[in-house]
Amino acid sequence: MIKRSILAAGLATALFVAPAFADDRPPTPEERAQIEAVLAAEGFTSWDEIEWDDDGHWEVDDAVGPDGRQYDLKLDASFAIIARDPD
């Protein structure tokens, strides 16, 4: 009976903790290189955080565009820019 209680408690903990691991994540070095190449090709000169969003796209915060304005960007899984939201 005690073993079942411990097992049940462990399973319940795993169910509540597991979604946290599915949240946003930073890019791998290879992904970062591809994203940065796309940003540079589009004329962006600097940016802050890059992360994979659990909604299925990349997010780039505070990217400075060729016009000098800051944008929050979204890129699809193929690293194409799909949204530019001015800050």
Could you please describe the fold and organization of this structure?
The chain is of the alpha+beta class and 87 residues long. It has one domain: Nuclear Transport Factor 2, Chain: A (Roll), CATH 3.10.450. Helices cover 38% and strands 28% of the residues. It is built from two helices and four strands, in the order ααββββ. It has a four-stranded antiparallel beta sheet with strand order 1-2-3-4, covered by helices on one side. The chain is globular and about 65 Å long. Keywords: Signal.
In brief, what are we looking at here?
It holds the Pfam family PepSY_2. The model is unreliable at 11-21 (pLDDT under 50).
The top level CATH class name:
Alpha Beta
Question: What structural class should be given to the helix and strand makeup?
Answer: alpha+beta
Instruction: Give the CATH topology.
Output: Nuclear Transport Factor 2, Chain: A
- What is the arithmetic mean of pLDDT? 85
- State the helical fraction: 25-40%
* Biggest sheet character: 4 strands, antiparallel
Number of helical regions: 2
| Tertiary shape | globular
The percent range for strand residues is: 25-35%
Signal peptide: 1-22
Protein name: PepSY domain-containing protein
Domain PepSY: 7-79
Keywords: Signal
